[in-house]
Every structure is written in C-alpha cells, then in structure tokens.
Amino acid sequence: MRILVVEDESTMRKALQKGLTKIGYVVDIAADGEKALEQYFSQIYEAVILDLNLPKLDGLDVLREIRADSSTVKVLILSARNEVDDRVLGLDQGANDYLCKPFAFQELAARLRALLRRDFIQISEQFQLGAILVDTALREVTINSQRVALSRKEYGILEYLLHNRGRTVRTEELIEQVWERDDDGVFNSFKVHLNSLRKKLPDLSIINVRGEGYYVE
C-alpha cells in the first residue's frame, strides 16, 4: 500500500518515512506543495499524510487539488495549526482526519489504519485461482484453506498482478508499486521475491512476456 508523506521539516519527514515503511507501507515523500502535487499526479496513492505549513504551495491548496481529482484517496492532515478553527477548516476542505503536532507515532499509525480499513471493508475482494484463494481485505493467501506465509513484497507483487488480470504489467510498473523508488539493487530484489512467490505458489502461473512484463494466467 503506497502512502505519500508531505512534510517540509527534514527530520520529521525522514522519521515518518522510516516508521511507516517499517510497519509495511511503501512511502514516497515530498518537501513542498508543488512537489507534493507532482508526486500525487504521477502515482496512485491510497493515502496522503499532509502538513499544512509548506513552502511554494500551502497544504490547504494541495488538499483542494487532491480533492478536485479524487474523492476517495484518504488525506490525514498533520499540522502545528492546532486551533479548532484550523481543524474545522481542514476537515471542511476534504481531509479525512486531522492530527495536531506534536503527536505520538503510534496514534498516527492507528488513525491511518482506521482510515484505510474503511475502504477494505467496503471493497473486500477475493480471487479464486483453483485451490488458491487470495483475500485482499485480509491480505491473506490460502491453498485448500491452509494459510501461505508471504512476505510484504511477495504479497504486493501477487495482489497487483491479480488486480490487473487481463493485461501484461511492465516490470517497472510492478517495482514502482511494491518498492520504494530509491531502493538500491531493486531489480535483483524483485527477481528474488518473484522467484520465492513462484515457489510458494507452484500452481499459480506467473507468465513473463520477454521485453514486456508479467501476467497471471
């Protein structure tokens, strides 16, 4: 699951990226409002964590642009503006939640889970592939009702291919969706996780179209 963190303070930005990555999210970062929109419109995000006091373009302006594009992406405002009027304004402009600084990371993570869980309940989807069952709400894979333990990246590859059944997904697209952009040796890591996924699910046909990408048969 990919999250965009928009925060101008470098230490906070890096801490959020590290903490959210550690608990299982793929995290992109932006340090100003213009970069935030550039990132947002170049990628698909499930949620945006948005500071309001941003250089170049104010956070509320960023929020308005996001809401003009999508009513479903979750936006959690994270701001030092802690007056009631500020919180009301942020929520009225389309934010799903508002957390004031300073904050505990555990609370941020819990609020983010709560926001994203609402969609999981509404769009729960299961894929049945012979004896293999993939439940995207539970992020669980079973074979004949026996759970198969997949790593976060193995599951990310599988889920993205399933959501895009009927077309060949480019390798670069898969990597963009499952790995952070600045990972070193990301292609080799992708190949390792793909091979591991194939071994764990031997009855699942992940086809490689040379020079084009992958699809699930």
Feature tags:
alpha/beta; elongated; 217 residues; 4-stranded antiparallel sheet; 8 helices; 5-stranded parallel sheet
Order of helices and strands: EHEHEHEHEHEEEEHHHEE
Count of distinct strands: 11
- Look at the structure and give the mean pLDDT: 85
The largest sheet is: 5 strands, parallel
Distance between the termini: 24 Å
With helices defined by DSSP (H or I, 4 residues minimum), what is the helix count?
8
Q: Approximately how much beta-strand content do the residues carry?
A: 15-25%
Strand order within the widest beta sheet: 2-1-3-4-5
- What is the rounded Rg? 19 Å
Catalogue the unreliable spans. Answer: none
Coarse structural class: alpha/beta
This entry's quaternary arrangement is single chain
Portion in helices? 40-55%
Q: Which geometry do the CA atoms define?
A: elongated
Describe what this molecule looks like in 3D.
The structure is a single chain. The protein has helices spanning 10-22, 33-40, 59-69, 84-92, 105-122, 152-163, 171-178, 186-200, and strands at 2-6, 26-30, 47-50, 74-79, 97-100, 126-129, 132-135, 140-143, 146-148, 206-209, 213-216. By secondary structure, the chain is α/β, with parallel strands linked by helices. The mean pLDDT is 85. Strand 10 and strand 11 form a beta hairpin. It is elongated. Helix 2 (33-40) packs parallel to helix 3, helix 6 (152-163) packs across helix 7 and helix 6 packs across helix 8 (186-200).
